[in-house]
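This follows on from our talk about sequence and fold. I would like you to pick a protein and set down its sequence and fold. Go ahead and set the record down below:
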Amino acid sequence: MRRTVAVLTGLCLIVVAAGCERGQPSSTPSASSERPAPGDHQLTLKHNGLDRGYLLHAPPAYDPSRAPALVIALHFYPGSGYLVRDLAGLEARGDRDNVLVAYPDGLDGGYNALSCCGNADDVGFLNALTDHLVQTWRADPNRVFLTGISNGGDMSFRAAVEATGRYAAIGVVSGGYSGALTTDESYVPKSPVSVITFIGAQDEYAPKFQAGIKTWQQRLRCTPASKASGVPRVTRTEARCADGSEVSVYTIADMGHSWPGATSGQLAAPAAGVTATDLIWDFFASHPRRT
């Protein structure tokens, strides 16, 4: 399943879709020269012989001695860190709460997630990026979170499963837990990873997303219960799982393949009735890594 952003379909961007194979073993990454400081930083990290680019935003009050939380935001396909930055609007909350926000670029506009795109070792790259930001920028290892939309949402699920112990929670927008890897019943996190996800009922992939999150909850022995969303035509369920993680699902009746509440950028849905960025941020704040 390859979900391509419609407005970019005409771009001459070629991705070799080689399934969802597990990537090659990670080589030791080395960061480009950098000096941790507030502001926007365009950086690279060498991984498996490739220079992988990412944008890092450090808040005005950034202070490494305070061990800031870290949010890594993953873009749609075809896309870039800059495009998801424009869409998600994470930095206002990051500035207020002293949180680092990283926007890595997938190779050729995509990540090797569960259903698409390419064959890069993106789990290894995200692990290396996380380790680098913990070691060099002094991010709190117990408060590292992934969020993403579409291909980036799928990638969040894959990293949650395969990068045991690194990510406390993930926020998935218009993405899902599906594909060949997920047919194995043991393909679940080995340590607790909480999930908040947003599904547009008008999204052509909504049935797969809904089936995927149901499978996730069944395998982790979660018990869903309906909760009031406070918004017409938006339903919400909350579940506590046997490993102590939690799953929060928002289904938005009138939304398609979009980021609810976003006011700019591709895939924005400003009239969705809920603002995914705020809800993800609050969910992350209340779900540090369980040890």
In short: The chain has a mean pLDDT of 90.
